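tool_log.txt
---
The assistant was asked to compare two proteins side by side. It first ran the structure predictor on the initial sequence, then on the second. Raw inputs and outputs are pasted verbatim so the downstream comparison step can read them without reformatting.
(1)
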Amino acid sequence: MKILLKKHFGWFYEKLNNDAIDSYAAQVSFWILISFIPFLMLILALLQVIRFEDTSLLVAFVQMLPPPVEEVVSYLFQEVHAPQTLISMTAITCVWSASTAMVALIKGLYSVFDVSKNHNYIFMRILAILYTVVFVMTLLVSMGLMVFGDMLYEWLITVMPPAFPTLINRFKPIMSYVLLLFFFWLMFIAIPRKQVSLRNAFFGAALASAGWVLFSFFFSVFVENFANYATIYGSLAALVILMVWLYACMFILLIGGEIAMWLQHSGINRDVSDLKTERRRRKLISEKGNDANGKTTDKK
């Protein structure tokens, strides 16, 4: 058992070092920070397109982030303005800028999943823009569900059994986890293109989502109760908090991809199966030996 653990943890550790996921996590978090303003402008522009002037969607977007990050995003929403002329060519510019972070993330996942990096720049950009558009649409749908969820909930109460409200309240906290899991799972399947099976991609996405949610929760508790960033960094405290949170979340996401690859290519599934078979074989031999000893005792 010790040999098995040493073998597979050694494989995992070596792959982490070779893939340099800490460098990719830093690169992705940096470009997300740089692309944040164009991304917010794109969100505001889309809200103008759908003629939704209520601020509820913006509030919902802010609430999707950890409390320490809420201040930064709330301030940016107040300062960033998206004029009506943003639609058309300027919107394309915003998508292009916001997709830079996605390019960095795709490169990181290519490294994790051992995908060939011979793709040209234009292909990478087009792929990143497509993923960015899908992400923005998913984000808008999630925000809409958060805003109009209460209205839908009140309507469902009138047509569903009495136990329905209690059931919904119990499962409400895990909805964000499920959405995150689904998005990561699609990402691990689509970007590496069949480098891992659906099951292993799901396990990696599940662990990455759980790590993301748990880290965000404990990081919020730490910042609010223990850390004193404002004293050290002054007015830059909120920016530093956002950067640390982004880096950790991107690192956790890439770790999830590494786990999926570990399950797929390290041979751990085969080794665990062989170990179980060997244990069953030894158990049968032991039981046969006990039976033989019992029969010998009876004869005496």
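(2)
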Amino acid sequence: MQSQTLASQQCLAMPELVGEILHQVAPGARDFEFISGEATATLAILARTAKLFHEEALTILWQSIRGLKPFLALLPSGVWEPENAAPIDLHRCFEYTCRVKRLNITSTKEWKTLDRKEVKLYDSDKIAERIFSKLPANQSCLFPELVDVRLPVDFFGAGAFRGRLFLGNKVTKLEIYPEESCSIEVGDRSMLWWDNMLNLVRPMAKNLIKLNLKLIMKYKPVDELLSLYRQSPKLQHLHSLPILINKKTFDHLSRLPGLKHVAFPFETGTAESIIRAQDRAPDAPIFSSLRFAHFEIDQIGPLLRLLKTWAANNLTELHVDRSQWIDTWDLDTFFEALSLTQNRLTLKRISVHERLEDRVDPDLESIKLSHAGFRRLLVFRNVTHFSISAHVPDFINDGFLEEIATAWPQLHAFQFKDNTIRWTSDVSINGMIKFISACEKLDTFSLSINFTSLNDADLDITKLPSFQKITSLGVRMSVPPSSAIRMVAFLHHVFPKISFHKFKYHVRDTVLYRDLEVDADEEYAAMLTIWKDVAEILRQEHSMASIAKMSREELELWGPIINSMAVFFGRQGAQTGGQSAGVEGFSDEDQEIDESGEDEDEEDDDDDEYEDEEEGGEDDEDGFEDEENEDNETESEGEGDY
């Protein structure tokens, strides 16, 4: 009896029990995932009202933060007055920042969120310098326990004090990305930012396992990168697009024993020199642990020869971008050569992107892709994610989708993105439904569809199947005005899980695309009653900013639609409810999920959700939701009153 009592007491030990309860509230907290807004509110209430849960709830609530709002809310007002010599007390701030393990700073504009009328008058670097000068003697940065951080490159300008606040010696995962507002291509200034960044990153290089440098630079710091890589023996994940890689750097990276994920473009001629070196030393280890490869290359042949010697059966993801310097994008040759590696590569994710935006007048005839060429990819029977970005060829029809479903029944994502506005797909509604039904695990689908059969009076939309698993849909279509209502009703019935405000159904690839012409306001209203979430997207600043950037042709279409939306939702307003969590740093109105995600730099991460989505999401340039990417994380950090 006594032993059972002791065992029971040990089983119900309070610290362990508290931890289990809170981790049920916030799943994924053990892996430092961003927690949902609902979980944030619950944790904030527990931290405020229950002494038993206070410390543990605070730890979970603060360990993963997206954005600077919670942190900025803690700073004393004196910080925002750089000219004021009065002492400032940061003790309260340190009590919380020492709990942060993961931080994603989505924009430098967040320095202005505390007081938009006054703070914008001050230099943010001076503010950061003032904070930095008040750090305790034993603290090298404001977030001493931070291990995973995402910073805009703008934080490394001038004295780089903003960068210094966040980069401590415990950082193991670092991503630095450009913002639209900063021009890193300006010669001298880009070198200044680069030097500042290197000086801060070098001390932590020995601990880095993930390094993403998504910078566009005229100055090519290849030698400096090589020096940094040599100091980072633990690297597993390296993303340095679009900084070119030469043979010397490649030789070093290819022999890192733990490198599993690489993304970089080759300098012209690098691939050939690597092949010659491999021919001289065929037994030299090359990317022995590689799982994910993402390359931009101007010659496909050398890349394929490299793949034959890499990774044996380890490589499962391959993403290739067409260099803007390639005149002919011969995908038939590429797919044929790639199929010859089937005995060495167990590919599960394949992505091929053509960057037509770099060309003023894209020549569709320069792309060589035939049905026979595409079929060669079907020898890889384990494919779960496929994405291709090119003009849709004529062979894309219902029969083609049947072949895909037979060869790849385990597909999770299938995306055939047309970079043009030509609608050449012959895939019908029935063909799409059969394909999605055959691929039971499919959750992402993108293709241009022929919706003319919606005009068939015998088509009963309510009798069509409903696909609950499809959460991301991109369909381009051209329908007559008379079919607009039926089309929306069809999509609503067949894909009930799609919603606008979570960016799972992208506005530029929807029923509102440029070919849709609807004249009557009542038809707009009928469309909008089906997806009321459109109101949410219109109330968000980033949505209005994207509208402001539209071309004249787009505005001609969008103007009436936006006006109709405004009229239709004008009386509904943005009503927000709920009780204040009442915990410092996290206010109730700030607990709304930040749907803009992390991938402003990735093409709204569809361009990286497909950013990679950018992680994409991010949602990286590959178009898939990277399993390691922030873009695949639960939205929201809960901000406000902590």
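---
observation on (2): The longest strand covers residues 292-297. Residues 2-64+578-641 form one domain.
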